[in-house]
Amino acid sequence: MINRLSDPLDFQAQALSLRSERQRLIASNIANADTPGYVARDFDFARALRDATSSQALASGGGAAARANAVLRYGAASQTSLDNNSVDMDRERAAFAENTVKFEATLRFINGSVRTMLDAMKSHNQG
Amino acid sequence: MTTIFDVAGSAVSAQSQRLNVVASNLANADTVAGPDGKAYKARQVVFTTELMGARGALGPEASAGVRVSTVTEDNTPGRRMHDPKNPAADGDGYVTYSNVNAVEEMVNMISASRSYQNNVEVMNTAKTLLLKTLQMGS
Questions:
Q1: Residues B17-49, buried b or exposed e (16+ Cβ, 10 A)?
Q2: Residue A10: its pLDDT value, please?
Q3: A120: domain range?
Q4: How many domains does chain A have?
Q5: Best of A24, A88, A100, A118 to disrupt the B interface by mutation (most B CBs within 10 Å)?
């Protein structure tokens, strides 16, 4: 029975945790914008979330194991540089902003469903 | 998520070290060789990736900070000018100045300052997101 309360939150929790991983990855890319030989990295968010929330991943104790398998991909340089650094600052900044907005969106979804559940638990004469 | 502060913090500190080196180069742009005949040599920092924090679902390689691995000296010969009246002149009347290229240093300075700003913004965004996460469910 308690599953009914926590299941909708589980999906958002996985999404939030993956968003935070991606935020960390992009922050590393931005930090290494001037490091010679550094290769920019990212992962496919949609695929990672699908893997983490698939029924078999949830059956085997949450999506943590599936999340560990999320494949890091290496970004190709949009413009070659002499020091072999493949960080494209424009692309990283855009990805960072996008990820920030979607992180906040996920937070709002969680807050929304928490509020819905609290409202459902309230008795009608409580105001 | 808190590792972001470590990552961006390491980058900010590396960029500020780079700015520091640029400052010493620019300060010494017009120094002349001392009695030993050796003028100031321009210095450059070399960045290298530093993996930090073993935690996180994507493994330790997911968060890569920066540190300054070495500071190299530019060994090109310094500018020489004929100025026999200068007390620092050598036997032939030439004064050796430092080999700092002021234009290069200015470009380096702007690049370092932009990278610094980018990383500060990353930290600010991470802070906002974490504060909002703390208020989750209210």
A1: bbbebbeebbebbeebbeeeeebbbbbbbebbb
A2: 86
A3: 2-126
A4: 1
A5: A24
